[in-house]
Design brief:
alpha/beta; 3-stranded parallel β-sheet; single chain; Rossmann fold; 9 strands
Amino acid sequence: MPAKILDGMATAKQIREEIRSEVEQYVAKTGVTPHLAVLLVGDDPASHVYVNMKKKACLNAGMLSTVIQLPADSQQQEIMDIIKGLNADPQVHGIMVQHPVPKHLDELEILATVSREKDVDGISRDSLGSLMTGEPIFISATPAGIIELIDRYEIPIQGKHAVVVGRSIILGKPVAIYLLNRHATVTVCHTRTRDLGEMTRQADILIAAVGKAEMIKGDMIKDGAVVIDAGYNKVEGRDKDVGDVDYEAGMQKASWITPVPGGVGPMTIAMLLKNTMKAANRAAGLI
């Protein structure tokens, strides 16, 4: 039987509607509008697309969104000073730095400048460290979106063997720790893992986040596994982006699978809004 679809588009729409209602109540109670500031450095076309999507989502949810765009040759201290100003601004509740930044910059140091109370993207050293100890304020938006999607479909995590393919600080590492905190047994693999298929075939929950088009083939998936494809890859000659999983083959092996597009991507933006709303509630002393 073909796999059932984990519909991130429909789930994210429901979450955004919930957040819009929450924003309305928050504004009525406090007279303040939740506000996300996004720092965009350079001219990466994909980054511009993503930032515009995030801004549109904020506005549709009734939030404020400020995009601070800086040239590619911006210097480290200049960027960090801007972030420090946003940290100190009580009208700004959430701050995110669009990844990637130009290569001459120290991205980890820039991210570390973002206040933990406003790090709604959840990828500063403080935020990742607090996830490790099991007491995060904000969990990185994509990992949070993946777990939220699994939860909304009432798929159990506790006691399952989760295999994560990918080890980035934005996705692979935090989602592995989050799953561990939810009592899964977790294996982390990557492009240098020997006999990757032997590992992935053990997964009850398989998360592909390595950034290589259709790297996970059908024979690498355990029958009945839950497959979460967090990859977005352009392939020459294809009319749409593809994931890290061979989708058609995965459909024949998995019990549940995310499509690309329409799976993890919409959930990421929804969770960024949810984190911003949480930051606003914290700032107002409501939670």
